[in-house]
Design a protein that fits this description.
Layout lengths: L3 E6 L2 E9 L5 E3 L4 H5 L19 E4 L4 E4 L2 E2 H7 L2 H10 L5 H12 L9 H6 L6 H15 L10 H27 L12 H10 L10 H13 L7 H10 L5 H13 L6 H14 L4 H9 L20 H17 L4 H14 L2 H5 L6 H12 L6 H22 L26
Antiparallel strand pairs: 1-2, 2-3, 4-5, 5-6
Bound molecules: s-citryldethia Coenzyme A.
S-citryldethia Coenzyme A (SDX) binds next to α17.
Length: about 425
């Protein structure tokens, strides 16, 4: 006998089916609620509302579990590569060696972007934020690949667009960085792997390829893997809802990039470093800033702390914090803000305000310290988050289409003026 939920409304009882996921998560399916009762539900921020059934990522905020297609994030971050994880998220299973090699080759062959895209860079003011540039340039890819506009592509055509976007994102990201420095862009090289290519386009010179310390390569794989997906977060939900109108992948991901930009979401990694720098420049007093974070009259928030879902530690933050120590030591980087971050974490984890609200460091708290040690400037941190999150956005967009989900169109409760007549005060 399948489980049901009864709701009593206005003296009538309504039964709704209960959906149980593979990890025993429960949901009341209210898709017939309005038809049967005339009522809707209201849940600002969707804190209690599931938007989809998904088989991509499972996370348990109470116990700090995160798995991509069933594989624990700790194992993938330690042993896998970013492209292998990208394939896993998008196609559902780990690739064979041969399939992964072909995936890598296909991506490498598409890393060049059309020379005319340079015209966009010429139009951006020199100090314009990289996230605004990224969303514009990714959306512009649909102009160069109009076949992506077909709302009903064949699986092969869809795969081509997926490869195209995975391949061109690192090139676009690196050109944004180069243009921000006023330096000539570096082109992708067919003899380099995905991460080496990316780092060479970022830090290499036009006629001088750079080789990178395995510590740096490993750190990039780890960081990109840790950011690759996170079920129905703000930016992923944006990608799904934009894609639900049959908008093309480039337009959907461009929208996701804009959602990620916000400092409450992916923009937090840049905000954390700016916060740590401000605390350092103000004498490094962690307690003073904890007090500000707790003061309801002070808009200051402890950036990189708290999470909608994790009410225990964010497993990614644990991995990144450990990687921070390893990488900075191996690179011989001594960043004073790392000590400030650790002091802040220690103080917050022992402070009743943070304990009561179950606020822990999230993925953004330590990641910027590593990005900075690798040589990225802080305005590029959220762009790096987007580079990592790309496979997740693609996987979720693909799943939404495969599940033939309806166009996303939430209801509302109207609280405005009731009917009133218009009285003209001027003649037309
Ligand atoms: C990401 O969803 C995802 O999965 C996102 C993400 C992903 O991988 O896609 O994990 C990536 O976005 C991580 C979060 C990065 N953002 C930040 O670090 C910004 C700082 N954190 C917060 O603004 C906040 O914690 C959120 C936005 C992350 C979560 O907000 P919620 O779930 O809406 O919680 P809330 O704002 O209602 O806070 C609940 C209470 C409030 O206090 P009370 O009104 O109960 O007294 O906790 C307080 C908040 O004031 N609070 C904080 C705080 N975060 C929450 N107080 C001080 N500092 C903070 N950082």
């Amino acid at each position: 006998m399948s489980e049901t939920a009864s709701i009593i409304l206005n003296g009538s009882s309504y039964e709704f089916p209960v959906v149980t996921g593979t990890e025993n998560e429960k949901a009341v399916d209210i898709s017939k609620l309005r038809d049967q009762s005339g009522y809707i539900t209201l849940d600002p921020g969707f804190k209690n509302t599931g938007a989809a059934k998904s088989a991509i990522t499972f996370l348990d905020g109470e116990t700090g579990i995160l798995r991509y297609r069933g594989y624990p994030i700790e194992q993938l971050a330690e042993k896998s590569t970013f492209l292998e994880v990208a394939y896993l998220l998008i196609y559902g299973d780990l690739p064979t060696k041969a399939v992964l090699e072909q995936f890598r080759t296909d991506i490498k062959s598409q890393m060049m972007i059309h020379e005319d895209m340079k015209n966009f860079f010429a139009g951006f003011p020199s100090k314009s934020h990289p996230m605004g540039q990224l969303s514009c340039l990714v959306g512009a890819l649909s102009a160069f690949y109009p076949e992506s506009l077909d709302p009903n592509p064949t699986p092969e055509e869809e795969d081509k667009t997926i490869i195209n976007l995975l391949a061109k994102m690192p090139t676009i990201v690196s050109w944004i960085q180069k243009k921000s420095l006023g330096h000539p862009v570096v082109y992708p090289k067919t003899n380099l792997g995905y991460i080496d290519n990316f780092l060479n386009m970022i830090f290499g010179e036009v006629n001088q390829d750079k080789t990178f310390d395995p510590v740096v390569i490993d750190a990039m794989h780890k960081l990109l893997i840790l950011h690759a997906d996170h079920e129905q977060n703000c930016s992923t939900s944006t990608v799904r809802i934009v894609g639900s109108s049959n908008a093309n992948l480039y337009a959907s991901v461009s929208a996701g990039i804009n959602a990620l930009w916000g400092p409450l979401h992916g923009g937090a990694n840049q905000a954390v470093i700016e916060m740590l720098e401000a605390i350092k420049n103000d004498g490094g007093d962690a307690e003073k800033y904890l007090a500000k974070a707790k003061d309801k009259n002070d808009p200051f928030r402890l950036m990189g702390f708290g999470h909608r879902v994790y009410k225990n530690f964010d497993p990614r933050a644990k991995i990144i914090k450990k990687a921070c120590d390893d990488i900075l030591e191996k690179l011989g980087v001594n960043d004073p803000v790392l000590d400030i971050a650790k002091k802040l974490e220690e103080a917050a984890l022992n402070d009743q305000y943070f304990i009561d609200r179950k606020l822990y460091p999230n993925v953004d708290f330590y990641s910027g310290i590593i990005y900075r040690a690798l040589g990225f400037n802080s305005e590029m941190f959220t762009v790096l988050f987007a580079l990592g999150r790309l496979p997740g956005w693609i996987a979720q967009w693909k799943e939404m289409r495969e599940n033939k989900e309806p166009i996303g169109r939430p209801r509302q409760v109207y609280t405005g003026q009731t009917e009133r007549n218009y009285v003209e005060i001027t003649q037309r």
